[in-house]
Amino acid sequence: MTAADVVIVLLGVVAVGGGVLVVGTRQLVHAALWLVVSFGALAASYVVLAAEFIAWVQVLIYVGAVVVLLLFGIMLTRAPIGRSEDLDSGNRIVALVVAAATAGVLVTTLVRGFRSAYVPIKDRVGSGSTHTLGASLFQTWVLPFEALSVLLLAALIGAIVLSRTDIRGAGPEPEEKPEPRRRPTPPRGPVARRLGVAKRRTDPDDEDTIVLSRVDEEI
Amino acid sequence: MHLVYPVVIAALLFAVGMYGVLARRNAILVLMSVELMLNAVNLNLVVFDMRWADRLHGGQVLTLFVIVLAAAEVGIGLALVLLIYRNRRTVDVDRLRALAEGDPDPDLDVGAMTDDEGTRR
């Protein structure tokens, strides 16, 4: 084992351990924070693998943008911040069996295939620098790059259209007067009690109720 | 550097992500697990780019493309999750059974669209 091997094994332990905690923790916000740990360890292992530009892109986009976006999603869906017991589905055992089988097949195949593959890492230094990668990206791969920019634009417009509430599809009924916005019906019955949905009081004099329902509508 | 270590790490990370996709109930946790699987693929691409080291650098460029695709995917996915939450007040994928076949459990089906009289549409 060379020094690079030792470093990459240690970083891999951190990355896989962070991943296990992401899928195993009982607190939703902690899952996002363990995701940061896992992605950070992966970025460090990209540096070891002589791909430093990819490492910085990983830090900027994944740790910087994607995790923050996921935290926004957690906050906006009003997930319970503390410990919650029902984050795991009923088919957990099946999932465990499937994942273990996948890991077994993949690891067996890869170990048998690459047991003796060796790359001297000193020859590869600089192969992932910004200069090399930028030249390759804008000479050879410029057409996929432009297509990807169009796709990003489409995804941006799609996300805006999905999250705005004042855009409606062309419905069959003509809208003459602005229809009052329909408030989503809160779930009733035993499920609602289990979810902890409080019964909304409909007393019009109660100002707190009105304020609360307005906050509800905003979200 | 021996290639077997990073490759095995990528396989394990992929399996962990697959367990998360199958076992978690919250839709945002499912999205996080998908990100883990995509990162495992990225690690594989970087490793094999280092192995072959061709002039086109296809592995690293494809890694960049996958990162951009993952960012677009998580943006759209979170917009969809928020839309589902706004309409149905839950993001529990076990309870969103409107497309499931078989006898639907009415107690589980929080998401059924009910109007004000409580009748199903």
Short structural summary:
The complex is a heterodimer of chains A (219) and B (121). With 219 residues, chain A is mostly helical.
How would you portray this structure in words?
The complex is a heterodimer of chains A (219) and B (121). With 219 residues, chain A is mainly α. Chain A is built from eight helices and no strands. Chain A has helices at residues 3-24, 28-48, 52-76, 92-113, 130-139, 142-163, 189-195, 207-218. In chain A, helix 1 (3-24) runs antiparallel to helix 2 and helix 2 (28-48) packs antiparallel against helix 3 (52-76). The longest helix of chain A has 25 residues, at 52-76. In chain A, 19% of the residues are buried. By secondary structure, chain B is an all-alpha fold. Chain B has a single domain (4-88), classed as Helix Hairpins (Orthogonal Bundle), CATH 1.10.287.3510. Chain B has three helices and no strands. The longest helix of chain B is centred in the middle third of the chain and has 31 residues, at 58-88. The N and C termini of chain B lie far apart (62 Å). The model of chain B is unreliable at 114-121 (pLDDT under 50). The chains are: A mainly alpha (219), B mainly alpha (121). At the A-B interface, helix 1, helix 2, helix 3, helix 4 and helix 5 of A face helix 1, helix 2 and helix 3 of B.
SSE string of chain A, helices as H and strands as E:
HHHHHHHH
Number of domains of chain A: 3
Number of strands of chain B: 0
| C-alpha Rg of chain B (nearest Å) | 20 Å
CATH class of chain B: Mainly Alpha
What integer is the average pLDDT of chain B? 85
* Distinct helical segment count of chain A: 8
Helical segment tally of chain B? 3
Helix share, percent of chain A = 55-70%
Head-to-tail CA distance between termini of chain B: 62 Å
Could you estimate the helical fraction of the residues of chain B in percent?
55-70%
Principal-axes shape call of chain B:
elongated
Name of the CATH superfamily of the largest domain in chain A: NADH-ubiquinone/plastoquinone oxidoreductase chain 6, subunit NuoJ
